[in-house]
Structures are given as structure tokens and as C-alpha cells.
């Protein structure tokens, strides 16, 4: 029986693991995909203290791995399938094993939403980092006007012929830092109060994108990226916690004895690396008591 099981190795889960390990706890850190979670995919990590200039999500993820290794914390790459609360312990089943623990920290994060349209077999992407060759000289549509979408649109503009940001709000929702860079770019056009409604695909290429108020065409092919928000990964705890719009309404210390929540899986005013790390820190300390 483990003292603590932590589900999710993003910034929140890693932080929780570091603080619990420092307090002498026997822990298990489960991750189904990659250390860092969503942040591992971004082209540039920003607004977090101590970052290097132009540090990619991949580089940030490696720092998390290095810190876990330094603290002698192993990452067990298994997908959690179910969580069950017994009288005085938790039963966690994965795609490979079954584990028991006295305390459980759920830091499973979130996943990106998809557009509510028929992609017609065309591959729509979320993250440009690693796809730079496919962007060169292309027309690219970025759906979404948040900080994340705007930051990725700016990265794409380094390679693409032109970038169209499609935002269903009446103005870009990103911070001034990104807004000023977008306004200064001669490659980026912003479409507000509109949405992508349909696409036309020929020979495995998207050659036409139909918006509410205009059509974007390119016979050489259009690349489409989607950054329209996230849904919380809360299915595993739906019987143990209160959920609203796929996110947990719970505090870090949940209503279930021994169960803690951390990171972007929770409803919070601000979702950033800094707040995820703060959640994980508190969860790790509280679960260790």
C-alpha cells in the first residue's frame, strides 16, 4: 500500500510529488502520456518565474523530468482506468496494474476541445511545435483568440505565408503583450465575431474554409489549428466530486477524506503554470500530514 498516489505528471502533479517525497512519503506518480501535460506541447512557455528566453514546452517538460530524477521519483507510465474509495484507502486500477493508497492526489489536467464541424478526414492539429516544415509557405487558420491561441499564431507566423485568427468573440481575448505583436504583424489577419463553419477537402488537402462571414481559399492547401478552450479530465472522479462544465468545483482538500485535487482539472480564476504549481504544492503538503 502506497502512502500517496498522484495521478497526472503535469506541473501540479510534479509539484505535489516533490513536496510529498521531501516529507518521506512512499508515493506513486502515474502518467498516461507525457510529463508536463498540455504545457509540454506549447511553442513557448511564458510568464513563469525563472524561465529561460524562448523556452519551449518540450524543454520545460525536460526540466520537470530532471527535477523528478534528482529527487529520485520515478514516473509510472500507465493509464488510470478507475478510482474507488474503500473504507480507509483508495483502489486505483490502470491499464496494467491495480494499486492501493492511503491518500490520493488527482492532478489529471485537461484536454483541448475540438471544433463542432465535420473534418471530412482532414487532419486538424492543435500544436504547431514540431510541425514547422508543414507550415512553411502555407495559409494557416488558428481557431481561438485566447492567450494560448494567440501565442501559437505568433509562432506559426514565423513559417507560414499568412495566418488567419478566427475568434467568435467581438475582439481578441489575449493579453496586451500578444495583441500588440499580432497587430504589428503583416502576416496575421484577425477575424472576430465569426466561426469556422465548414471546410472543402480535395486530394487530402483543405482548399477552402468557410467562415460565417467570408471564405478563405488556397489551392495549395490550408493548415487548420484548433485552440478553442479545454475540457477537464474529470471522468474518473465523477462519483467522488462535484463537477461543473467538466471541471471540478472542489477545493484542494476535497469532501472525501484523503482525496485532494490540483491543477487545471479544477475551476479556477486563473489557469497558469504558477497556479498549477501552487495547487500541487498545497496538495502535496496537505496529503503528507
Describe the structure.
With 289 residues, the protein is α/β, with parallel strands linked by helices. The protein has 2 domains: 2-112 and 230-288, 3-Layer(bba) Sandwich (FAD/NAD(P)-binding domain); 132-226, 3-Layer(bba) Sandwich (FAD/NAD(P)-binding domain). Helix content is 22%, strand content 29%. It contains 6 helices and 18 strands. The chain has helices at residues 11-22, 57-70, 132-135, 147-156, 176-184, 273-288, and strands at 2-7, 27-30, 75-76, 80-85, 90-94, 98-106, 110-112, 139-143, 162-167, 188-192, 196-202, 205-211, 215-217, 222-226, 230-232, 243-244, 247-248, 259-261. Strands 1, 2, 3, 4, 5, 6 and 18 form a 7-stranded mixed beta sheet that branches. A 4-stranded parallel beta sheet has the order 10-9-8-14, covered by helices on one side. A 3-stranded antiparallel beta sheet has the order 11-12-13, with no helix packed on it. Helix 1 links the parallel strand 1 (2-7) and strand 2. Helix 1 packs parallel to helix 6 and helix 4 packs parallel to helix 5. It is elongated. The model has no long low-confidence stretch (mean pLDDT 97).
